[in-house]
Design a protein that fits this description.
By secondary structure, the chain is α+β, with helices and mostly antiparallel strands. The protein has helices at residues 2-18, 61-65, 82-91, 155-164; strands at residues 29-36, 41-47, 50-53, 69-72, 77-78, 101-110, 114-123, 126-137, 140-148, 176-184. Keywords: Signal.
Length: 186
């Protein structure tokens, strides 16, 4: 009887390990989408200097992401357009207090091909909790959240951006920014 129970436990454990899922931390991408114009036209970008640090190495998404951090130099913004890069640097990011952007993942909940993350986003010397949801589809992990830059005490920087890009944004710059974190599953 003991051998039968041990055999069943071994098979179950092998099944759990064989089906374990985590993200490929070597292929992580972080992007964001800001919005302009009254019709809320999306403007996507990333940063060329992001340093990642992940939780303990394991076979689960939750343990890999719990406590993970991304440290970002906002002056290395990349919108794939030199004029947009210059405008965002000069009109917005130059108005930040010292320090860059740091994101720390907390309270990672891992379900079947979906979950939640609480992103602690530090920007302009202020930390804001940003709830994120994630899905796993076609071998890709994608987490998405929505932040409002006004929560970071960036009223002056936002006003400078909106004024500097008034005509390009048809008079409207939105304060909401969608943040995305993605990676292949391994």
């Amino acid at each position: 009887m003991k051998k039968s129970i041990a055999g069943i436990l071994a098979i179950a454990l092998f099944g759990i390990v064989a089906n374990a899922t985590t993200i490929d931390t070597s292929k992580v991408q972080t992007t964001w989408t800001a919005y302009k114009t009254p019709t809320k036209v999306a403007v996507g970008g990333t940063f060329n200097d992001i340093k990642y640090k992940f939780g303990k190495k394991s076979d689960s998404i939750a343990s890999t992401l719990e406590g993970a951090t991304a440290t970002i130099d906002p002056m290395k913004v990349d919108l794939k357009d030199a004029t947009k890069n210059k405008n965002v640097k000069n009109f917005f990011f130059s108005g930040f207090k010292k320090g860059g952007i740091k994101v720390t993942f907390k309270n990672v909940m891992e379900g079947k091909d979906q979950g939640t993350i609480l992103a602690m986003v530090r920007m302009n010397e202020k930390t804001v909790k940003v709830p994120m949801t994630y899905t796993i589809t076609d071998g890709k992990f994608v987490a998405t959240g929505l932040l409002d830059i006004m929560e970071f005490g960036l009223n002056d920087a936002f006003k400078k951006l909106a004024t500097g890009c008034h005509d390009l944004h048809e008079g409207m710059t939105w304060s909401q920014v969608t943040i995305n974190f993605s990676a292949p599953i391994k």
